[in-house]
Design a protein that fits this description.
There is one protein chain. The relative contact order is 0.15. The longest helix is centred in the last third of the chain and has 23 residues. The protein has 9 helices and no strands. It folds into 2 domains: about 60 residues, Oxo-4-hydroxy-4-carboxy-5-ureidoimidazoline decarboxylase (UraD-like); about 100 residues, Oxo-4-hydroxy-4-carboxy-5-ureidoimidazoline decarboxylase (UraD-like), CATH 1.10.3330.10. By secondary structure, it is an all-alpha fold.
């Protein structure tokens, strides 16, 4: 069965986790209407990213807050989603030294204190150094800029996940 042939429940079951713990994005995308463009990762991503952007600011903030800290407590406890576990491991965040872990914890805490939500970055294929540099650069942003950046990064994460699930 193709993506555009799925009923709402099956669509949300299959794609509801693409946007971390936020099935409302898949529900909204489905309700906007599936077509032949949704058969590819790029096409479905476009529809789902538009649904995310149509969400109100409270829903968007909840989506941002649904993401775990990078190299945070949930990762150390083995309580990330399978996708988040793979993504963080691909960047080496599962193999930090004690010093690196302490620095990630420190900057995660400072970031959350400043913005009120976790640092979001599509880390697949990135190095620990690139991630830390982004942390240090982005902590200087204002809240509105960083809110938008977080949504942009969530969109990138979703595209990577959909690419793993669907053809081109």
């Amino acid at each position: 069965m193709t993506v555009s042939e799925l009923d709402r429940a099956a669509f949300v079951e299959r794609f509801g986790g693409v946007f971390e713990h936020s099935p409302w994005v898949a529900e909204s995308a489905y309700d906007a209407g599936l077509d032949a463009n949704c058969e590819t990762a790029q096409g479905l991503h476009r529809l789902m990213a538009e649904a995310m952007m149509r969400g109100d600011s409270a829903s968007q903030l909840a989506l941002i807050n649904a993401h775990p800290d990078l190299a945070g407590r949930l990762a150390r406890a083995g309580r990330l989603t399978p996708d988040s576990t793979r993504e963080q491991a691909s960047a080496g965040l599962d193999q930090l030294t004690d010093e690196e872990r302490a620095r990630f914890t420190e900057i995660n805490d400072a970031y959350k204190a400043r913005f009120g939500f976790p640092f979001i970055m599509a880390v697949k294929g990135r190095s620990k150094g690139e991630i830390m540099a982004a942390f240090e650069r982005r902590i200087a942003h204002d809240r509105d800029q960083e809110f938008k950046t977080a949504l942009d990064e969530i969109s990138r994460i979703a595209l990577l996940r959909l690419t793993d699930m669907l053809p081109g």
